[in-house]
Amino acid sequence: xxxxxxxxxxxxxTLPVKSEKGQREVFCGLTGxxxxxxxxxxxFFLVVxxxxxxxxxxxxxxxxxxxxxxxxxxxxxxxxxxxxxDANDEIDRVVQELLVRRPDIxxxxxxxxxxSEVIKLDLSRAAQRLSKVHHPQVRVLNYSGSGIETTxxxxxxxxxxxxxxxxxQPVTTSxxxxxxxxxxxxxxxQLRTLLHKMGVSQVxxxxxxxxxxxxxxxxxxxxxxxxxxxxxxARCLEAKGAKxxxxxxxxxxxxxxxxxxxxxxxxxxxxxxFDEVTKAPRQRAEQSMARHAAQLQGKxxxxxxxxxxxxxLARFVxxxxxxxxxxxxxxxxHRQIMAADMALLPPGTRIxxxxxxxxxxxxxxxxxxxxxxxxxxxxxxLEAQGFTTKWSIxxxxxxxxxxxxxxxxxxxxxxxxxxxxxLVA
Length: 425
Ligand code: SF4
Prior knowledge:
- Helix content is 44%, strand content 16%.
- By secondary structure, the protein is of the alpha/beta class.
- The strands form three sheets. Strands 1-12-11-10-13-14 form a six-stranded parallel beta sheet, sandwiched between helices. Strands 3-2-4-5 form a four-stranded parallel beta sheet, sandwiched between helices.
- The chain binds iron/sulfur cluster.
- The site of iron/sulfur cluster has 12 residues, from helix 2.
């Protein structure tokens, strides 16, 4: 049987989407620093913000306290500021001290936040000034992780979008593939190996592991998203001429197969070679998911809007684990980017964009799902009401893409139910 699973037009873009605006319960974009700093090994993320910001990233990335961290905070909201100049002096001083102490840093991001003192600052000018001062040792860029402007995964989007202007044209023009979105190194290696076996050898990953290994870009670059929350980055890449390969996201056996097949079709890989390369890992993925699918089959699941991964995850749990979707909430819906996954959702799936948390809680009580995927702030209240929950942030922190991670991804959904059964036994 062919490995390629076609994208039917069943649910398609005609799925009704309800929009809500109300109180939200989500993290701010600073959270992205947690996985970005692990990925880009010579970058440093300097949050220009308050003690609240410092606490957020330190508690979320507590383990890094014992390692040499690649993030920090320039606290500026508690100073007796006589003006913007003081704040700029403070940033300059912190950066100077940091770069003397850490000559290994090659790329420094100034990350904006919420306090009014920070909003008044022009961080892009500060970044330009510092780039000149510290040239050529370090390049300084800026983006906003403020909770007023960004939620959770949008921090990565803002970071990568600020970085795209640094991508230069290649010396010679040839068709290349760029995989866009932070992936764990192990996932990156697996995908690269599969693509190489298919003959797609000109593959780069953005963000790269080292800032000095930036991919090049021109009109012959085709890019494919590995993460669904990168709409601004996608726009910036297209402004530089790159073309997006449309595909569902690489989750589970089927999602990964379709994602790889979308690349294969664009790079002239034959069906026979594609099947040969993907057969064994696809079967491994199917086997590793089987036990979890047996447990999850027919169970009801609701997604509260948080990470923008909700629609691809809903496709995965419904199609590959046999779960029933009560509601799929997403903080933002980028229809083009989500089109391929939405086309695979059953007709009538309730998709809700945005959040009105009280209304969503009411619907959840009436749906009575077996499992709720939600942000940290809502997990305790929901558990107190007898619901079984999964923190959506775990699905961002854990390597879940690709064939070899399919079993781990399925386990993230089955484990909370197993835990609940043990508790009530
Ligand atoms: Fe800092 Fe604003 Fe995030 Fe709070 S919401 S941690 S003030 S950036």
